[in-house]
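Repro:
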Amino acid sequence: MSFPSEPTDISPADLKRRKEDFHAESDELATAFAKAMADLDALGAFWGNDEVGRKFAGAVGGTGYLAARDEAKSHVEGIGNGYRKIGDNLGLVGENVTGANWATVGEMVKAVVGPEIGAPGSKAELE
């Protein structure tokens, strides 16, 4: 295993600060999405109650706007959770670098192991 001859210019304090930055991004995403959903909700059932409107909404066949809306929420939550996990891992790296014995750092290299960040599938259909 070879390592770069030049040290990085990222300090443990920088890595720890990035944790908070990623958490803030997650919070901003959640806030923006909640506002967008509230704006849509304020429109009410804009699709109407005829057959076409019910199909659009998803009352016919279980797919449509309402299903897609729920899936969008799931996707945005997944992205927000991913941002939090990235931030947590950067904070952990900052802690590990702070406590590293640099004489043996080559022996310490380990992969960060955690749950996979996946994108949920979509049941919505586009016609």
